[in-house]
């Protein structure tokens, strides 16, 4: 006799993977969107990358715009968690900034969130865009607290922490720059982190 699984049609089984299916879909989708932009990714692509059916993807996310929104939010909170973990360490502020830079630049994908939001702004609703932007702002606000702390402890000059965080992230994004021939500015992510933080630090201190 057939066994009743008590599952809705299209819902994927979880026994093949330790990570819950919806979490796996979000993680793979964020990677695909970052690599190929919103327009360059289909629900079929996500399903294949996750080794599930397209119906399984639609079970959790009714539209591509919904999947994109949730994937970008999950990515930003994941990045925020990693950055805060590094900034929380008992190290000089310079060392913590260097550690964040090395971790950020070791990722092969350029996490230029403004570019990804812009690429999809005509494909998602205003509410979805606002939700993504709020997640991005949360990441910046979390970092600002550590800049304020460094100011209070006189490790850096009394600079506007919001400006400092945005300037820092913008500089880190240059570490992924490649010219028309595909050549990077720096020979390695470690060298990029070292030079960028050294340059940035001169603006933070005397």
UniProtKB/TrEMBL annotation:
Pfam families: TetR_N (PF00440). Residues 1-21 are annotated as: Disordered. PROSITE patterns: HTH_TETR_2. Residues 42-61 bind DNA. SUPFAM superfamilies: Homeodomain-like (SSF46689), Tetracyclin repressor-like, C-terminal domain (SSF48498). Residues 19-79 form the HTH tetR-type domain. InterPro entries: Homeodomain-like_sf, HTH-type_TetR-like_transc_reg, HTH_TetR, Tet_transcr_reg_TetR-rel_C_sf. Keywords: DNA-binding, Repressor, Transcription, Transcription regulation. The keyword DNA-binding applies. PANTHER family: HTH-TYPE TRANSCRIPTIONAL REGULATOR RUTR (PTHR30055), HTH-TYPE TRANSCRIPTIONAL REPRESSOR KSTR2 (PTHR30055:SF175). This is TetR/AcrR family transcriptional regulator. It comes from Halobacillus shinanisalinarum.
